[in-house]
């Protein structure tokens, strides 16, 4: 009965807020609700599915060349399952935190709850600081990766400008995301983003199969430990979109329904990533070791150019997904979070874009940077911290008895969930952060020595006059 009461409280605030914000029935308000102001389970699914794969779709064939076909498939399935589990843990902790606060009559209608605040409310300021550091750093470099991906992709349509110049241009374009208030307003963007990813994934699959295997194709992966763990860590990064999980949940009218959304999103994403990565690796083999962007090896056609353009738009959307939580943190820091003026908030957010822009120009290593971010940041943000936070939050018998969300009985209840959490922490700490961190840093340093920082055109083919 207590759980039913809590769900009514959580859902009630959002329904109330929707009615207060837009009670009119004009054509404008109907269009706003249709395209702009979303909060349903479908919106959350589109957001999770669209945000989860993004530009990593283009680097997964590169990971397969490092891992080999069998390991590439196994790691995708394994980390997809692990990612879905820790997303579930985050949703449990969010509902627990929010319910406790709403029982204390805290009103969140003008405040977006974030992961570090959940950690603060449940475990204290030290956990808040750790969560804030890892989450913000991950989101910062996640945004950097989107800018690098934009420049890398557009180059395959127009190589009259080098990739660094394209980074300048797309940095300015992506800065316009400061005008999107919150995840409520990504309804149409999330839907379009998923369509774009789906088209690109099936283009890669069909185009590779149609192209066939290159002459004397070789599939030698895995060849070295460094390449193997670098590839594995890139896949760990692929299923680590949890840095915006709490914000997506908070944008839902009934966030308690988030439980299975991430799992369903992951299952759909696997139908895109497994065929595309396998097909491209089958066709080009070891050539991918020197071409981290799958577009680089496919012949230029109208279908490829369409895929490139769609991925550019999608990367703009994903940049907004990664940056919006950073905007919220910055707004709270400078005291602008409750400001209703869209233009004042947009102006206040601009300083967040500058360091992202700068870092994308310094380290334009499309592919290797994914693995580095995955091993050093995603491993903690997405896997280790949620698993440990869940165990500590519910370590006492009273906390378990009064928990809003209990672990599924088919997994063994509390004992089973704690066992899974311990496995996640140990595995990711040793394999993801330990071996993955070592391999990714070795590979990243190799890129710096080979190409240098501020390189104008990373992995560019010879320019044709």
The topology string of helices and strands comes to HHHHHHHHHHHHHHHHH
- β-strand percent reads under 5%
The count of β-strands is 0
Helix count, per DSSP?
A: 17
Low-confidence stretches: 1-23
Radius of gyration: 22 Å
Keywords: Amino-acid transport, Membrane, Transmembrane, Transmembrane helix, Transport
Protein name: Auxin transporter-like protein 3
Pfam families: Aa_trans (PF01490)
Transmembrane segments: 73-95, 132-154, 166-183, 188-206, 226-249, 261-284, 307-330, 350-367, 373-393, 414-435
Key descriptive features of the protein:
465 residues; mainly alpha
Description:
Helix 5 packs across helix 6 (115-123), helix 7 packs antiparallel against helix 13 (302-334) and helix 13 packs across helix 14. This protein has 17 helices and no strands. The protein has 465 residues and is mostly helical. It is found in: Membrane. The chain crosses the membrane at residues 73-95, 132-154, 166-183, 188-206, 226-249, 261-284, 307-330, 350-367, 373-393, 414-435. It comes from Heracleum sosnowskyi. One of its GO terms (cellular component) is membrane.
